[in-house]
Specification:
- By secondary structure, the chain is an alpha+beta fold.
- The protein is 19% helix and 28% strand.
- A hairpin with a 4-residue loop joins strand 4 and strand 5.
- The strands form two sheets. Strands 2, 4, 5, 6, 8 and 9 form a six-stranded mixed β-sheet that branches.
Length: 192
């Protein structure tokens, strides 16, 4: 007796109206109303979060990159910038990235977060398909090592001008004369 094969099934096709809007990805973390500055330091994880609207064709994967104003592009997250298509956030360990990629270190500059679907960063707008997003700008910085006063720290941006004025005896007299005058006005206001 001959074996019969099960009937072939065709893949599910999603029909999308040509008037449907393109799918959108809206950044929810960090808030778009704030400029975010991220410190490149141990245990300082950065979370980027988003939600989807009008996505009728769920992507298989999302690609997340940070593009620096210096022209360098960095993969975001623990999986070289490629995450599941249903993900609504990615966590990036900036310090680990910095330690593991000495040839392309993160710069202390401004970045743009780029997120796109399987179709790539330059895919055209299409009804129901996720439109690439590059709306978020953020910056990174590296903390300077601590140097105590006893170890020779000096303020390089402070002005030495105050010492010139502070050494002037006329200024000292003027300031001493203004303090009692200000106090007597305060006392008058309170008593009046």
């Amino acid at each position: 007796m001959a074996q019969t094969s099960p009937p072939l099934t065709s893949p599910t096709t999603t029909r999308i109206s040509p008037t449907a809007p393109a799918g959108l990805l809206t950044i929810t973390q960090p808030p778009a109303t704030l400029t975010s500055y991220y410190k490149i330091a141990p245990s300082n994880l950065v979370t980027f979060g988003w939600n989807f609207s009008f996505v009728a064709v769920q992507p298989t994967h999302l690609t997340v990159h940070a593009v620096c104003e210096n022209g360098n592009t960095y993969p975001v997250g623990p999986t070289d910038g490629i995450i599941d298509g249903t993900a609504t956030e990615v966590v990036w360990d900036l310090y680990s990235y910095q330690q593991n990629n000495p040839n392309t270190p993160l710069a202390q500059k401004t970045y743009t977060l780029n997120i796109w679907d399987d179709r790539g960063p330059n895919a055209g707008r299409a009804p129901g398909y996720l439109q690439a997003n590059s709306a978020l700008k953020f910056a990174m910085y590296s903390p300077e090592p601590y140097i105590g006063l006893a170890d020779g720290w000096e303020c390089t941006t402070c002005s030495a001008a105050w010492s010139t004025y502070a050494a002037n005896p006329l200024l000292a007299l003027a300031l001493n004369g203004l303090y009692p005058l200000a106090r007597s006005n305060d006392d008058h206001d309170i008593a009046g």
